[in-house]
Structure formats: C-alpha cells, structure tokens
Design brief:
Elements: H1 18-28, H2 55-63
Amino acid sequence: MTNLKVHSPAPADLEGGLTSLRGDCARMAPHWTAPERVTPAPVPLSLIHGVTVPPASARLLDAMSDYGD
C-alpha cells in the first residue's frame, strides 16, 4: 500500500493575509533565480509576412459583436 501523505516544511496558511504571503515568498525566493536578461534581436523585414486566416475563422470573427454594440 502506498502512503500518499505529503509533508511540507512550511504548511500553507490559507487564511493568512499579505504578511503571510510575503513570508512565503521570502522563503521561496532563494530557490529561484532570475534568468539573465536577453534582448531579442529585431526580426528582419524580409521575414515578416501577412497573416492568413482560414475562411471559417474569418466568418466566425465577422459574426462576432464589436465592442459597444
């Protein structure tokens, strides 16, 4: 038979407030590292093409109400 009980080192405080949440975050922060900031290279204009929408999707979108109707 398998024991399905899971023991957590810091039980979740479901009734806690902002102070409890900040404490939880402070305990988790050392376990996570932020990735190095990577600046994406611009996409060459030659690779940018128009968008193709299947006819069924175009009809569906055309039948949708616009904002303010």
